[in-house]
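Quick illustration, no need to memorize.
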Amino acid sequence: EQVAAELRRMLPYKIESWQETNAQLVSALRAQSISTAVIRIVVAIVVVLGIASVLVVSVVQKQREIGILRAMGATRGQIQRVFLLQGAVVGALGSVLGIALAVALVWAFTTFVRGSDGLPLFAITVPVDTALRVALTATLCGVLAAVAPARRAAAMDPAQAIRM
């Protein structure tokens, strides 16, 4: 846009930037990027809710054990840390499996999908910094998903938990 504006001032010709010439393409690319962001957010929410539901079921199933731990002297903070750690492990394990699947799919795509010249159609790689950011985000999502179940487990009354 800036180069086109500068050339318009200098030359007597009709000059358009590629964005002006391909306005529909630019609009479609913007819409695609917005829809991609929305899909990523929805997937993240679904993953967090899935992890949270697994941990809630774990709290319900381990109610008696949590009550026994509390009766033996475990503090609310210790109980909370157990479930937060469990959420972190679930998130980390999921991220490791997801990155391994991504690497395998990229390898399969670049190995088996070739152009007429025998070279890969696209040069795809999984950047290490992106993989680490994804792993960190997934682990953080696991911990965030574990907050509510951890608080519920820590708030249990030991006598009632053992009775059930």
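Residues 67 and 73 are 10 Å apart (CA to CA).
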